[in-house]
From TrEMBL:
The chain crosses the membrane at residues 6-28, 101-120, 158-177, 375-399, 419-446, 467-486, 574-604, 653-671. One of its GO terms (molecular function) is calcium-activated cation channel activity. Residues 744-771 are annotated as: Disordered. PANTHER family: BNAC05G09770D PROTEIN, PROBABLE MEMBRANE PROTEIN DUF221-RELATED. This is Calcium-dependent channel 7TM region putative phosphate. InterPro entries: Csc1-like, CSC1/OSCA1-like_7TM, CSC1/OSCA1-like_cyt, CSC1/OSCA1-like_N. It comes from Arabidopsis suecica (Swedish thale-cress).
Amino acid sequence: MATLGDIGVAAAINILTAIIFLLAFAILRIQPFNDRVYFPKWYLKGIRSSPLHSGALVSKFVNVNLGSYLRFLNWMPAALKMPEPELIDHAGLDSAVYLRIYLIGLKIFVPIALLAWSILVPVNWTSHGLQLAKLRNVTSSDIDKLSISNIENGSDRFWTHLVMAYAFTFWTCYVLMKEYEKVAAMRLAFLQNEQRRPDQFTVLVRNVPADPDESISDSVEHFFLVNHPDHYLTHQVVYNANDLAALVEQKKSTQNWLDYYQLKYTRNQEHKPRIKTGFLGLWGKKVDAIDHYIAEIEKLNEQILEERKKVKKDDTSVMPAAFVSFKTRWGAAVCAQTQQSSDPTEWLTEWAPEAREVFWSNLAIPYVSLTVRRLIMHIAFFFLTFFFMIPIAFVQSLASIEGIEKNAPFLKSIIENDLFKSVIQGFLPGIVLKLFLIFLPSILMVMSKFEGFVSLSSLERRAAFRYYIFNLINVFLGSVITGSAFEQLDSFLKQSAKEIPKTVGVAIPIKATFFITYIMVDGWAGIAGEILRLKPLIFFHIKNSLLVKTEKDREEAMNPGQINYHATEPRIQLYFLLGLVYAPVTPVLLPFIIIFFALAYLVFRHQIINVYNQEYESAARFWPDVHGRIISALIIAQILLMGLLSTKGAAQSTPFLLFLPIITFFFHRYCKGRYEPAFLRHPLKEAMVKDTLERAREPNFNLKPYLQKAYIHPVFKDNDYEDSRFDEISGYCIEDSDEECVTVPTKRQSRINTPAVSHASRGSSRSPPSK
């Protein structure tokens, strides 16, 4: 069991690590040769120029200005200086709202901590429950005297914790409601002020029914001309181009190797580079590297050309899905938010993702297989979560010196040393758990991709949801339950059954010491390591010395990265859960959480301003998930407090806690009905206003060329590919006048999709309909 001394050692290690990371960052960021690593966002915007192009030779690589070293902490006020409206223009609404998650943590926990430390801590400290407990073999430390464990069973002091639970709940709900209102208003204002984008006019249509008489493209055009005659503009069918995309990616990789060996040869022309053609270049025939990769690229070019022809000519490459664009935002909103057919499984419509957000490979997955894929992933996630309890139990064994001595008695002489004991109990459990979780976000993202989500934001939201559930079950409940069970096993075996709940009730608050060590490792040192960007720093200089030939190559080597929402948001939610659970139980944990939120806000604000370049913009679509998870953490905290008080003989006060989860649940229902629609649907009124204003400002703007190729698969957009026939099979009309593209020739002999008369009965002319 970690003591105050152990916590002090862990704090010293993590604070020292964080300071080293921050000092290293402060020095490295002002060196000219690292400028692209720590300020890539400004380079991508074309605002910042490289300091390597001017000045003396030494000053191009090393900062010789001693004054800048004295001002090494000026990045902190600079990160806080940019106002939020300017931050939204600079980095987008997603980034600005993401930062508000850290702010909401400070708004919730700073007042709660002040209240808890001024009221609950004195109440806990002045009690004598741990000395008077009958369970003498329950381990405890000085830090537990600050928790609810130190209050005698049946004491009237539990009324203080009950009142504080109500105060914490009301304050948390108030902050959540004000933030939900604020973010919803920010989202609507952002969408209203946003510049014209293709996704504002476009809907993704899936499960297009097959028609033996028409192609998918003709069927889509015919359906929308008939059912949305005044608003339909154009469409782009979806192709299964996954094989083509793989070839293009292979060509890109081969081109990188060619660039590398050409650059190597230009630096030393006396020896032409040679490679082995066998596996990983370990064996095989030795050949000229440049000639080999030139031949490989020529071969890939031929394969790409053949695959493109196959995609164009093969009807099976066309998926029953399409991106359909409309003349107005109003028309797109009506289509995206209504049912298109009497059969609810056909002509399924949803807002199209932003073009750069589309996850193209998943569009090739048949819609009917999505349910099966998601069922498989639900089962896989269940087993992943269940079997991860094994390493969690191992981590908890590290939290107890007794457990290590029992399993590894040969280490007894080493771990009995006070310093080693403090390091093992105060630092090691947190770092081991952190290492176990390091690959989990990537695994969950792969699972989300297998499920078939078609946008990057939906992929990240699903992975984040699963990561949150995983943290809740394994990191939180697993650590508390397995830790308590392992730690008190001997006590359980020697007690009667009715005494076991009391043992658990006392032991659960004691686990706060483990979570304190985890917060310091993950939330202090981990966040400080984020700003150092050690991995991008190393990879940039490797690429810059081996692969970079042009400024474009150098931009690609910068790798600014982005906010990994699926990895970072669930981590934040774990801190919300810990704070809300332990606020009325062990308030000593709250300052550690507050430091995390403050440090993370500062670091990520700096990274968003100077480093991260987001791949997409969802206009804070993730906020309902954030709100819902904080609410769930609040309800879990209330239920656990009820369970804890029920084991402490507080029979009179415990029933009053029953109202808290009910109140919280109905508060959530209110917020869901009041604010969530702003994140799910686009108001027709706002769409009409924006359309009207745009027509007034640009009455002659031709929307069709703007939308016509917005959603073509990226593999068809390179300069080598120019084929007018692609426009024909995509269902496009190239005429300048929208009115000349009203009807479509069709071979249909049935009326499967529309009650209107078939075009075949009217002939195949493309004349406009009579008015």
